[in-house]
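Appendix B. Chain record.
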Amino acid sequence: MKQKFTKKNKVKIDETVLTTLLKTFAYSTIGITVGIVVILFSESSHFFAEISLSEFLGSTKWTPLLEPRHFGVIPLVYGTVLVAGGALVIAVPLGVLIAVYLSEYASVRSRKIFKPILELLAGIPSVVFGFFAITTITPILRYLDPEIQIFNALSAAIVLAVMVLPLIASISDDAIRAVPKSMRDSGYALGATKSEVVLSIVIPAALSGIISSCILAFSRAIGETMAVTLAAGATPQLTLSMKESIQTITAYIVQVSMGDTPHGTIEYQSLFAVGVVLFLIIVAVNMSAQLVVKRFQRKYV
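Structure tokens predicted for this chain:
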């Protein structure tokens, strides 16, 4: 009895220690997030003490490192949305098609080949994609159209599309495979063809997961740094042409973080101001994702 009692106590102690560790790790993530938010807003308050919010959100010129200085963040936000939106235009159709092929049409052998390739593509560092853009994608684009600048938004959008493609394809594949087989069998029982079942039953049933993958990919594209910095350049401007150089929020953060800007100056404080804008954009995208997914979510018993 004494030995059993001792073992039981040891198990309880082990469970208590493990539970405490797990809680510590969980609460530490919350603490880190709160710390990041506090630092962003506290440091950016020094920036907004000198630059009015109306100028920051209303001006269309962003030249904080050059004379005369202008602090209108609109060109950076526009460049970020332009590149991320262009990436989704390319990646979403391809990603969904790949997911449909893997889940509905591919053989077991083909799936074992293509699935690891997608996962390998997702693990390539972003800086490698950036070099791939300026050494491969941009020369091809300039060969097709010599008017395209060396640094351009189109090259950045294409390389971002390649980067988020595995995310869209993988999550969409999981969502499609989660659709009950009975729904497919019901379609076949009514005389529907394979394509009709996929388009009319499977994809609508997996729509919430597909939309989630697209929104997550958009968040990833907005927050991407090195690939966009290398491919798109550093020219903050409002242009409808993707042949020209633009600058994203993350690219500007890299530019200021190089160490050439003195600490404590208004130029340095602008780093935190644009960081707050990027943070709020990502929060808004994630909240919208939850609403959209909740709207289209379907549960199967």
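Further analysis of this model is presented in Appendix C.
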